[in-house]
Amino acid sequence: MTDCLFCRIIRGDIPTKKVYEDEHIFAFEDIDPKAPTHVLVIPKKHIRGLKEATPEDAEIIGRCHLTAAKIARDRGIEDGYRTVLNVGPRSGQSVFHLHVHLVGGRDLGWPPG
Ligand code: 5GP
Ligand code: ZN
User: Fold this and answer.
1) Which ligand 1 atom minimizes the distance to the CA of 34?
2) Residue 85 lies in a domain
3) CATH code of 81's domain
């Protein structure tokens, strides 16, 4: 989508600190990190969010999580991290291109706010 912030990031129109990229996935540092590790893992395919995803998106959503797990392993934060999808405005979703937050590197409270 031309006017989607994260589609523009994938295209390289907006600079980011890239963490990982393959045919299906792009991962980059969050601009406003909430923990020592705060990486956003996104599908290259534009999907508005989890509630708009369809069964054909199951594989790519799984890939996003497995990519987050790989980044966590590479960074040595496997003693505790979280993968989060904010879904809908009441959850705090502010960018409407599906993204998995990988948050870790510090103690994480439960339940989340
Ligand atoms: P949401 O609130 O939709 O779950 O998450 C959106 C995330 O995108 C936020 O954590 C926010 O800091 C991040 N973000 C928003 N704009 C940019 C940007 O231009 N570059 C990067 N790297 N992250 C962004
Ligand atoms: Zn998009």
Assistant:
1) 10
2) yes
3) 3.30.428.10
